[in-house]
Amino acid sequence: MAWRCTGKSNMELVENLKQAGIITKQRVVDAMNKIDRGDYAPRGAYLDEPQSIGYGATISAPHMHGYALDMMEEFLQPGMRALDVGSGSGYLTACMAEMVGPEGQVIGIEHIEQLVEASERNLSKEHPDWLENGRVKFVAGDGRKGYPEGEFYDCIHVGAASSDKPTELLRQLKSPGRCFVPVGGMLQKIIVYDKDKHGNIREKPEMGVMYVPLTDKNKQYPGGFNP
Asked: Which first-to-last residue range defines the signal peptide (predicted)?
């Protein structure tokens, strides 16, 4: 059913994702209903397909965001802290922030400064207070290195493909903690890395995917590209 969940509204899109069995946890349904994808995608917001957000970046298809939130739900509980690598237009960061609640925090890291600014504008449409009180923080930087200034995270989501095991990101996971990341080159798979309370890491391949690669800023956006 993936790629077939297009709706005419945010609510219809989320209901289709639920009916398709892509999102199975009520907290994920609630978060995706509360965060309107239309605030974060410049066009085709409710189509179940990736959309360009400018600067050589895309917002992933809704079904991939649904899969990600469903798989991370256990580590997006109220009061937890999370990192969204390659946060793009800020949509998934906002969904994660909805799930961790007012006592939690989500940091979105993106190496294109213009997208960081766009994320702040997008979030401010409905939740300017989240930026003011620190529930959400968007930063410009190389997400491949994580964001060690934020200490350790219960959950890390990566929105672009890592060429190999993301060692530095896994180092920044709490024990226990979970990392959702596409890994590979031409052939990619979603890998869920779980760190147990003793710091041991187990990896579980989930599904084949096709994401844009985690890459250098100047390779993704050499300049002159406008959304």
From this structure: none
